[in-house]
Each structure stands twice: as structure tokens, then as C-alpha cells.
Specification:
Elements: E1 2-6, H1 10-22, E2 26-30, H2 33-40, E3 45-49, H3 57-67, E4 72-77, H4 82-91, E5 95-98, H5 103-166, H6 171-187, H7 192-201, H8 214-217, H9 225-232, H10 234-242, H11 248-259, H12 280-294, H13 306-315, H14 323-331, H15 333-346, H16 352-355, H17 360-368
Parallel strand pairs: 1-2, 1-3, 3-4, 4-5
Helix pairs in contact: 2-3, 3-4, 6-7, 6-12, 6-14, 7-11, 10-11, 11-12
This protein binds fe (ii) ion (2 copies).
Amino acid sequence: MTVLVVEDDEITREAVSQYLRLSGFNVLEAESGEKALDLSRKVDVALVDVKLPGMSGIELVSEIKSRNLSCVVFIVTAYDDTETVKKSVEAGADDFIKKPVNLELLKLKITHALRNRVFHLYRNSYLKSLKKKLSLLEKTAEEFFTEYEDFLFEVLDILNMLSEYRDAETHKHTERVGWLSGRIAEEMGMDEAFVTEIQFAAPLHDIGKIGIPDRILLKPGILTPEEFEIMKQHTTIGFRILSRSSSPILQLGAEIALTHHERWNGSGYPKGLKGKEIPLSGLIVAVADSFDAMVSRRPYKKPKTLEEAFQEIEELSGKLYSPEVVKAFLKLEREIMDVYRREEDEDSSNDSRSSHKSSPGEGLEGIRE
Ligand SMILES: [Fe+2]
Ligand SMILES: [Fe+2]
């Protein structure tokens, strides 16, 4: 431990320094504030005489403290008046020692201060490292979130492509099912997170079709009951694929893949769930997907008009579809009509809903939706 003795009186300085050296401290000496400043960075304790030529002891204390925060500074003064003590404390002095200096007391005070200093140093460096860790963590969390978000959207995009690649349904169909599902959920008063999640998860409802053999998926004609049983497996296959992820969107996608063909009266598949046994996401996507399929042109059927489709969904409320979902869906009638009509107008020469490639196997499933 290094102690700096700042004292202009040579005899006092020598006596104090000598005693401290004999007590085992490493001692540096300075006769002025200016010289002391140069040495102050290297010391653990500074004993500063309040009366110095040039720079005053109190000025020196505040300078030392601004350069070496961990240095313990004692002001040494013959004046123990309140004003001097107050100024010393304001300048940053940790304690004061009265002149004439009691050497034994000085040694005790230094030893005690150094012990405390170790604790303060530890506390300060621990706090500093905590703050550093925290700021690093905040930054990383933000960056991590952005990276995760980008990554998730890329994965969703790839999954959507995969899903559409083998399916007859177009990108616009899956996009519309996502939009419709989000709007219905919002109309039902679901929270923002669920609305966003269902909007991104719903387009993946038929991803399991990538596991259906071509002879069935692409069969030009009506499926046999056996073939239809295999077709139904697109729900469980989709669930198996998407449930491998821990992402809330893909987890919801898994739930939707599994339940979008369940029907309110229990006539659906794969489990024949009834009413509220079916998760809300499945109930919502059932309506969105069926409606979009009804108004879409398929090789085996003419599209229904928007009015006809709304009427059919309404008639099937409480039979195939959840009454609550249908109620919210019907409230959106005007908005949905506007969106579909606008899209029809924009795309009138080459309507996406009339241009997708034919797939009777999928079509049969579409009829049953
Ligand atoms: Fe499906
Ligand atoms: Fe669909």
C-alpha cells in the first residue's frame, strides 16, 4: 500500500514518512500540491496538509479525487474549525487528522481506511461490471430480438413457399386466409399478440399436404374413401412439422394445421372434436379458409358470389362453424366485400382466384370444406 505525504514542513513530513515506512507502508513525499498531483495517481492514501504553498490543501484534495477516485484522502490540519472540516468534506476528503499528528492514531486510521477501501473498491467494480453486463444484455436482447424476428419471417416465408409449392392453392389464397383470420380474431376482441400470430400462422394451415402422395394430391377426379382418409392426414402431418418449433407463431400454426377441418357439430376431422373442444384458432381458420375456398374458382366448380358465400357461412353457423366466429365474421361483411372486390378489380384480367393450377384431389377436400 502506498501512502503519499503532502507537507511543506520538512521536519513534520520526514517524521510522518519515516514512521509510516517503519510501519510497513510504501511512502511517497511531496512538499507542494503541484508535485503531489503528479504522484497522486499511484497512491492508495494521501495525507494532505491543509496549508500548502501555492495550491491549497483543499484544492489538492478535490484534484486528487477527480483523478484517482479510489484514493483515500486525509486532510491534515491544525485548524479543526467547522469551516475547514466542511470545505474538506465538500472537496472530497474522507477524514481529517489534527496536528500535531498522533502517529499511532494516524497508522490506525490509515489501516482502517484501507480496509474499508477494499470493500468500496470491490463494490464499485462490481457495480461497474454489473452495469456493463446490463447494458450489454439490453443491447444484445434488442439485437437478438431483431435477428430472431428477421429469421422467423424468413422461415415463415420458406414454409409458405413449401406449402404453396405442392398445393393447388395460390399464394393469394393463403395470404387472404391469414388476413381474414387476423381480422376475425380482432373483431372478437382477442389481444394484439394473438391477432398478429394467427395472421402469420393461418397461411400454413395446409402445409401438411407436402406429405400427401402425388397420386392422391394430384389425382384428377374424385377420391375414393381410402384416398380421402390419406388426404385427411395433411392435418396431422402439418401438426407434426410445425409443432417441432418453440416459436409461438409456429406453435399456433401447428394447432391450426391440426384443427382447421374440425367442425362445430363434430363432423370434421381428424378427431371429430365438437364445439369448444376445438381451439379458437381452428374455429377461426375454418371460417376464413372455407369462405375463401367458396369464392375461389376451382376446376371442379364455379366460384360462389361474395353474397352467396356470406349467406352460406351464416346458414352453417352452429352447424359447421362456431356461432361466435360467424358473428364476428358477419360484422366484417362490408370490409371483406370491399377488399375482395378491390382485388377482383385489380386482377380482373388475370384473376388469381381463377388462374391457379388445377388439383382435383385438393379440390375434393375443398368441396368438403
Ligand atoms: Fe386443409
Ligand atoms: Fe386452404
